[in-house]
Please model this.
Amino acid sequence: MERNRRRARFTAKSQSKGRRATSSPSETIALLLLRFCSPSAPGRRRPCKKMASLKRLETEFPILDPDFRSFCALRGIFTVQDLLIHDLQSLAADAEQQPSSERFVQAINQVLYLIDGLHQPWSNGVELMEDAQKSKHVLSTGCEGMDFLLRGGLHEGQVTELAGPSSSGKTQFCLLTASTIASKHMGGVVYIDTGNSFSAKRIARFLNQIYGPASEEMQPRGLEQVMNGIVCHSVFDIFSMFDVLHCLESKLKSQRRHDERLIIIDSLSSLITPILGSSGSQGRALMVSAMSLLKKLAHEYNLAVLVTNHTVGGDGGIPKPALGESWKTLPHVRLLLSRDCGSDTYHVSLLKHPSIASGKAAMFIIND
Amino acid sequence: MEVGRLPISAALKGKLVSAGYTSLSILSSLSPSHLARDLNISENEALDILKYAPHDGRIDTSSGHHVINGAQTAWDMLHEEELLTRITTSSVDIDNILGGGISCGEVTEIGGVPGIGKTQLGIQLAVNVQLPIHCGGLGGKAIYIDTEGSFMVERVLQIAEACRDGMSANNTISQNVHAGQIGMQPKDFLENILYFRVCSYTEQIALINYLDKFISEHRDVKIVVIDSITFHFRQDFEDMALRTRLLSGMALKLMKLAKKFCLAVILLNQVTTKYAEGSFQLTLALGDSWSHACTNRIILYWNGNERYAYIDKSPSLRSASAPYAVTTRGIRNCVSNCKRIKLM
Model:
């Protein structure tokens, strides 16, 4: 599919050089901003140039000389982003009145050309459909009730939240999903554990159940290989979690093919609760930033993400998921889990899903 | 903004963004003096910021699994878990449902009604951790943090004497006296319990922050008992949001301590009533957001005239209950006719 990359050019109304006048600057700006918001085809990588201050760009582009920079500085423009925000029409009019108006116009064009090279290319519905069918698979969780509720299981490219009161089976479900995906889908699992609840013994028990007793697939060698695919990180604050995710991102970027299929964070709410709600919105900003990083990893590298959340008391004593109203919009799929007291039966209901009606419920049993 | 994810102050973040540094990869190619000049800050602050710049040296490819530094595969963890020793509770039934005893590297919360024996169990564990490994302990010291003032030294002496008698009885039966093994006296047991008394929630938080440094200097500490974790947070707290934040921060620090030094952390908790599903139920104090702050939870309750321990939450153990008794010698197995003794 050919992509149309239209270049936006900005010209002042000068007669020299015969440049074509384009649409008005504000339309240009609108077009540029639209491109920044467009969805991108997965697998595209941004070019390496980053948004920078005009001063540092001078070394590469000598047209951005100190005169131009002081012209911009008088109007409060120090970086490429400031130029985008500024009203280009009035800037053009000002540039006209300067003695070296042509150079200034060239310089503005140069910066806009740089910006043009930064955005992701357009993609359309057909490409997105191909991507969804070929690269974004559905991963079975190993639990029939949950697979039935989610019509197949966890979707790659989506972030799923599992909320539930204490001891309702969230960690058990995470361990079961990790074992299933490591064994049946031969995928790597990144397990980020905040409460020292990752139990390798439990994973070994699940794997023995999956393979059945005394089957020839389950040689000790096979168990080692499968369990080496599950990597566990212990993190105890949100910045360590960001570290782990950044390292993971650079690792995935540098490899052509990767095995990882699933990221599990158990539990994300225990990392966010200590910083949420204090004076200032730092906590909420970090929460949104964490989710956007997870969504980016999920989309670009075809991973499924599972995070757990605890519950707090709601109206009438019915537990509702924690982390507040602004959290509700962040995950793609939201599930609420509960367990009958003292039994192995779990009830799960669907609170939000992009393609299934909410309110459905299912029941499942996790054996010892 | 990727720069928003750095653990630096909001003012510094604002300066970085207004100078044009919005993504982390720009930072990795800068020198501290350049950054300091650009942002108009001191060079030390610039060095602090650049510490967080990403560099590729963190990926450890030596083991062949391309594991990021600090991570472990499940296979390695399985072998480590098998080698971990546990601390006995002196009651064989409770040890059985716990898979051998209290495990290290995890935070265990023990809750129950007043008078059920939480402090007794805490003291028993603080004594048992000092036993040598072949007797069910870890040969280490204990830290006991007392918030209510319920720690009674005379009781510790009683339990220590009973422990010593039990050990020497074992030695004569098995004729396992190692050459040069010094028999532990009750005084030695008392010496190895490091006791802190806290009187307010600020002291409690300060102490938990200090424990990291303290334990790095006293590496033979193997258990931390906090009795009880909830006392100072239940009264006089008007700002519930602040309470939630403080408690979850405290929980994360305790988890980190348990993991880093591979010790057992025991939290003793009180109960309160909760109105759920049309009836009042007993539940552990501090609310739902605290309930996920422990790895394992054991609930102590009365069943008729007997005391029972029930595993409420555990990643790898099955739910089970076991009876136990509190005797003059400490926590022991329940003999079937033992009755509830009212302490007046």
Remarks:
- Residues 153-174 of chain B form the longest helix (22 residues).
- Chain B touches chain A through 69 residues (CB under 8 Å).
- Residues 26 and 256 of chain B are 32 Å apart (CA to CA).
- Residues 56-66 of chain B have pLDDT under 50 and may be disordered.
